[in-house]
Design a protein that fits this description.
binds zinc ion, 3-stranded mixed beta sheet, HSP40/DNAj peptide-binding domain, rod-shaped, 4-stranded mixed beta sheet
Length: 379
């Protein structure tokens, strides 16, 4: 597509004043704004690009002079590959970086309300960490909790530009909209070149002509963002989920940091987790240990029945397969390991004592006697 003359694009004569250029730009931007040009947003976007590029050049006295003298050749390095906007990132291939480097694109994105993107020059916001408490059921079945995060978002009234209506700004004359300035220092025979954020526009590349009344020119709005996160079955206590791009946005035109959500599982105190297995303890009555039987024990899901065989010794560990935690990202569950304590009656009546002696003899005394004799032999 052949490039149109920049004056033609803005519908102005070559003698147009700086104010003429500004007002023509504002008028056209409003005209091609996608909210207005709903019937053909793609064409509107193309028009918008064309208008922005023309404004970019004609609003800058130096660029305008070069354009007047040499035509597109005089300014093409500003937009073509290898021009100043692009050269630092030809190796990176990162769209975000390119967007951040080009005032044209930053402006385009800001005005079209697209996802906010800024490059290194625009600065990345802080990462934000929040915790979310979840019942143990979340680790069994998964959950989709919603976390509330204090957030700053681009002001909708000015689309994050800080300028009234999103258009009442001009390109920063100090950095030509790049948001960066080069400082050249000569020390002896050496020349040092440093590139830093433009102090005049604070790295935004824009100079606000009329402040947005909603955000007082900050371009930011304080909100509480509600974000749903997906917690998979088998999640560990303390697991951290990263939600890219939902951290703090510290400056309009900047890039937000990431949000980190830490899961804190509310583990019932009677259970101890080890990976997918879970440990618990249960106390059974002496007759059950002696004769066998079925007891009900608490599990992560509720209750389960445990078959106790006759002659179960104190501190025996039983394994209930599939009653542990789900395996993260795989099928199946771990096991519940129950350690069984045997409740010994503390006081028996005389009659009960007779019955026990009759049934069991004096085995305890016998064992103690054997052990004593063992010591005597070794000693
Ligand atoms: Zn605003
Ligand atoms: Zn600047």
């Amino acid at each position: 597509m052949a490039k149109r003359d920049y004056y033609d694009v803005l519908g102005l004569p070559k003698t147009a004043s700086a104010d003429d250029i500004k007002s023509a730009y504002r008028r056209l931007v409003r005209q091609y704004h996608p909210d207005v040009a709903k019937e053909n947003p793609k064409a509107a976007e193309e028009k918008f690009k064309e208008v922005s590029e023309a404004y970019e050049v004609l609003a800058d006295p130096e660029k305008r002079r070069r354009y007047d003298q040499m035509g597109f050749q005089g300014v093409e390095t500003d937009f073509g590959p290898g021009g100043f906007s692009w050269q630092n990132f030809t190796h990176a291939g990162d769209l975000e970086d390119l967007i951040g480097q080009s005032p044209l694109f930053e402006q385009l994105f800001a005005n079209f309300g697209m996802p906010f993107a800024g490059g290194r020059s625009a600065g990345r916001g802080r990462d934000v960490e929040v915790g979310v408490r979840l019942p143990i059921a979340a680790a069994l079945h998964g959950a989709r909790p919603t976390v509330e995060v204090p957030q700053t978002t681009p002001c909708p009234d000015c689309r994050g530009t800080g300028a009234r209506g999103g258009t009442a700004f001009e390109t920063c004359p100090d950095c030509n909209g790049s948001g960066r300035v080069r400082r050249v220092q000569n020390r002896g025979y050496s020349q040092f070149i440093t590139v830093g954020a433009c102090p005049r526009c604070n790295g935004t590349g824009r100079r606000i002509l009329d402040r947005c009344p909603t955000c007082a020119g900050s371009g930011l709005r304080r909100t509480v963002e509600r974000i749903e996160i997906t917690v998979p079955p088998g999640v560990e206590d303390g697991a951290v989920f990263r939600v890219p791009g939902h951290g703090a946005l510290e400056r309009a035109g900047g890039r937000p940091g990431d949000l980190f959500v830490q899961v804190l599982l509310e583990m019932p105190p009677e259970f101890r987790r080890d990976g997918t297995d879970v440990f618990s303890e249960a106390t059974i009555a002496l007759p059950i240990a002696l004769l066998g039987g079925e007891v009900t024990i608490p599990t992560l899901d509720g209750h389960a029945s445990l078959k106790v065989p006759a002659g179960t010794q104190p501190e025996t560990q039983f394994r209930l397969k599939g009653n542990g935690f789900p395996r993260l990202g795989r099928s199946g569950r771990g096991d519940l390991l129950v350690t069984v304590h045997v409740e010994i009656p503390r006081a028996l009546s005389g009659h009960e004592k007779d019955l026990v002696r009759e049934a069991l003899g004096t085995g305890a005394k016998g064992a103690a006697t054997r052990r004593e004799s063992l010591f005597r032999r070794r000693g």
